[in-house]
């Protein structure tokens, strides 16, 4: 019996060390992985152990630009490491650097250099959004959505947000106001059919139909920001308008409706139709034809023959 006591004591001590080691698995594992290829706090992490960032603010990645980055990585390697957070045993999640991550996959790499940071969900969201705003070429709408998420999901005030991203409150507010525009115009900003300057001018038009009508004119007539600003001013204060080149015979909302009717007529007749109207609702419809057969086709549609 006396000989068994030291054995029990050693077993108890062994269990205590095991429990202590189990309480700190992340530290132990990270120290082990640091031996793989540590460079000033940077670790080489297998790509298949990294999850994409669910908080990534960039929605669209240019395929050509991604392929160009991939070719550069094949030659030069990754110059700027990605940033990840640790989720568990051999499991990480991107904080920033998704373009580099995706391009590395295209380049056929097995591992990428990465900074490993500790962050909860809110901290990760804030870091990902701010890093992308500062370092990636986001379009104006993506920046606006990123600002909105920082305000709502990270519980920041506009002054705090301005400090985080290095912008004054007015600039931040101008981006946030883009989210009040109709979906069609927001899509135009996203697809870079109109600039931030155009969008800021459109924000000052309260009527949605007029906003859409002016937006259509910007696309069709390739209006400059200055002309759009003058057009908006004319709508708000017709007597104060100074630029005659921006004046229109029709109310923008009415012109928008006429354009819609013109498109329907063109679809119905299978040819380009010209529809014109003035402020008194007088006008004309022109239906061109290109041959006798084409004319007969149109007359049949009109049930004249």
From TrEMBL:
Keywords for the protein's UniProt record, in alphabetical order: Chromosome partition, DNA-binding
Pfam family of the protein (one): ParB_C
Domain of life: Bacteria
Single biological process term from Gene Ontology: positive regulation of sporulation resulting in formation of a cellular spore
GO molecular function, one term: DNA binding
Family: Belongs to the ParB family.
Name by which UniProt lists this protein: Chromosome (Plasmid) partitioning protein ParB
